[in-house]
Structures are given as C-alpha cells and as structure tokens.
Design brief:
globular; about 270 residues; about 35% helix; alpha+beta; Jelly Rolls
Length: about 270
C-alpha cells in the first residue's frame, strides 16, 4: 500500500522510464509459441508493487464507457453492457481521483512508449514480415491502451481482428488465480473451414499475450459465467498508422471518442 500511495503522489518521468524498462524486459523474456499461430506469452508484465497499485486503483463502474464494435451485441436484456472500457490516455483518466489518475497515467505512458513498441515489433517480426513484407519495421503503428472490464454474459465468437490493427496485446489483471478458465481461446482454421479450439490462455494475474494481426489469428472468449465478478484486462492495440488515411482515421477517432466521453461525463456530473 505504501508503494501505491507513493506512486499516486508522483508522476515523474523517472517512474515512466523505470516501468518501461521492466515491461520491455518482460516482453524480451516472453515465450514464443508458433501454434496455432505465432504469438507471445507473458509472465509478470509489471513489477509486483505496480501491479498491486493498479489493482487498488481500479476505476468504479461509472468511470467506464461502453465498448463499441462486436461487443455491442452482448448487451443484456436490460441494456447492461457486458464489456466496458476506459482509454488510458490523459484526456480520459483526468476524471479519476488524483491517486488513481497518477497510477494509470504512468502505466498508459509506459505502454505507449517507443521502447515497448520496438520490442513487440522485433519479437513478432516473423509474423509481421508475413503480412507487411521485409520492411515491416518501417510500418508506422499507433498505440491505444484501454482498460477493459467484462461481466457475466460477455462472449465473443471466433474471429480475426480488423486489418486496421497491426498488433493485439492483452494483459490480464485478476486479483488471484481462481478463474484461469476464462482466458482467451486460440483456434486453428482447418481446410474444411472449421475452427477447433487449439489452446487457451490462463486468466492469471500479471500475465498476457500478443500477436501480429493476420488471416490466421482466430481467437474467441467463452461466455463469462455467473462465477465471475469482473474480468479485467488491458487491451493494448497497435493500429496501422501508415499512409494519410490510417493516420487521419486514428486521430479523428481519438478526438471523436474524447468528445463523446466529455459529454458523457458532463451528463453524470
């Protein structure tokens, strides 16, 4: 708790740099798994004190906003959203209480650092090269880290991510190891078009995975059951930022989301 209080009172660049170095070393140490598609598996992404601070600084329900896209189809009959999010950008977390804001500002800045992007690109090089060719390192990527929360009823069918995305990272944030069975499922696409389950990530504290988005990166999540209170994680996505269309789309989308979030906060204040 003392570490949490200290972090909550300071936002010095040294903290961001220290956390960035730790995350980079964690990615460097990631296991490379090539089936059913090329991906990385992480252990201990964050230092223990930072992870505990993140858990202590989790936002309350009203801090989140509904997730768009496929998740909208999972709303409950009463309109409750089964997946919600909070972008870890300064313009979103500024509404949090100062101690919580300090924690997530440091985490968000570290995740968006150039060093983290570079090590992910390097570790995922073989998969990125298959999609973008030998000059994959030169493909611009725009990082968007979001804190997500799923509740009972949420699920998503097997899918590959949109081609607007270049890299998908998910970092799990449970309090303990009591719910390992709700991690993301990876599928293998067979010649007959079927998508059998090949492997499943364990929903364990301070773990996660990453993959370069491709035509073979089929993944899903089973329906979150009543035994789950919340399924918390960070979805850290690198959107392709190459060319005027992608460049403009990424920034217009961020501005539009910011405006929508400000309107929502104004209505709740």
């Amino acid at each position: 708790m003392n570490q949490y209080v200290t972090l909550g009172r300071t936002e010095r660049q040294s903290e961001v740099e220290s956390l960035t170095r730790f995350i980079v070393s964690s990615i460097e140490a990631a296991r490379v798994v090539e089936t059913p598609f090329y991906h990385l598996q992480f252990d201990k992404v964050f230092p223990d004190d930072i992870y505990n601070a993140m858990r202590a600084a989790m936002p309350v329900v009203s801090d989140y906003r509904p997730m768009s896209g496929r998740s909208k189809g999972n709303d409950l009959a009463d309109g409750t959203h089964t997946r919600v999010k909070m972008d870890l950008f300064p313009e979103y977390i500024r509404h949090l209480p100062p101690p919580k804001r300090a924690v997530w500002r440091v985490v968000g800045r570290a995740l968006c650092s150039q060093a983290v992007k570079e090590v992910l690109v390097r570790k995922l090089g073989p998969a990125l090269a298959r999609r973008f060719g030998p000059d994959y390192v030169k493909v611009a990527m725009y990082p968007i880290p979001i804190l997500t929360r799923d509740i009972p009823g949420y699920h998503i069918s097997p899918h590959t991510d949109t081609r607007w995305k270049g890299i998908t990272v998910q970092l799990y944030l449970p309090t303990d190891d009591s719910l390992p069975h709700i991690g993301t499922i990876f599928h293998e696409r067979l010649s007959d078009g079927s998508l059998p389950k090949k492997t499943q990530m364990k929903f364990s504290p301070n773990t996660g995975y990453a993959f370069a988005v491709g035509e073979d990166t089929w993944h899903s999540a089973d329906t979150v059951g009543a035994e789950v209170k919340t399924r918390d994680s960070i979805l850290h996505t690198y959107f392709v930022d190459a060319g005027p269309l992608c460049f403009l789309r990424n920034r217009v989308k961020r501005i539009g989301n910011f405006i929508s979030n400000e309107i929502r906060n104004a209505r709740h204040s």
